[in-house]
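Sequence, structure tokens reproduced for absentees:
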Amino acid sequence: MTRRITKYFLKAAQAAEMSMLPWDAAIRLFVEQSMQSYSAACGDKLWFFELDLAGALAAGGWEILKASGAEPRGGFREVERVAAAKYEELMDDVLLDKAMYDSTSAVFGEGPLCTKIYRSLYTAHGPAHVSACADSGQRRELERVEVFLQSWMERSMNRLWQSIDGAERLLCVDSVVRLFQNLVAPFGEDHPFSCVPAALTQSIGRPPRNWAFLRQTAGKLHQAVWGCTGAVAKDVWDETSVLLQREARAKK
């Protein structure tokens, strides 16, 4: 395994454009290209998220800079900082990708439908985040989370409702709610990761999986498209007030 990973790093180090970039951009490019090959080949392995390669990538990047005579003033520590930041960013992206696919397959199973829904979610995630961050100074954190989830649901589901045969049945309110509950807590309630961007939940924490806002939003969207809201689940735990309390405490 070590030889295999080293091979990916060596291939990335040979990129011709690296020598023409400032040292920090060269390090980011080296980490990005190394991780592209590594994650494509090993991303489905059980140990993938347990293996921390930030140090190895920093060391590899340092050797590249020394060979080119472009070491930064801060020395290896600066290289280590830049490499680690890029590595963490890319690993978060890989984890987000896995979370979206796993959340989708848990509701719709493996197959073409799952792939289509996953792609729609992936495409809509970034624009939804941008929408939530617009005029962020005028919104509380909870409002930004609501804007994000509503925008993500609207963008992804509207596209699917128009392109999938039998969408009214396949993408009913209950299915959409279960999907977004999974996306809120893709690896279970005890795992901290969420497809809701962490930048939106720093004070209030991740929304609860059974947040009533998800069903309310799905019902409104479904009604707008199909003219019906679908079945309303009982015993939905609405923790909006809890999230508001967390936000208020964080501001004290």
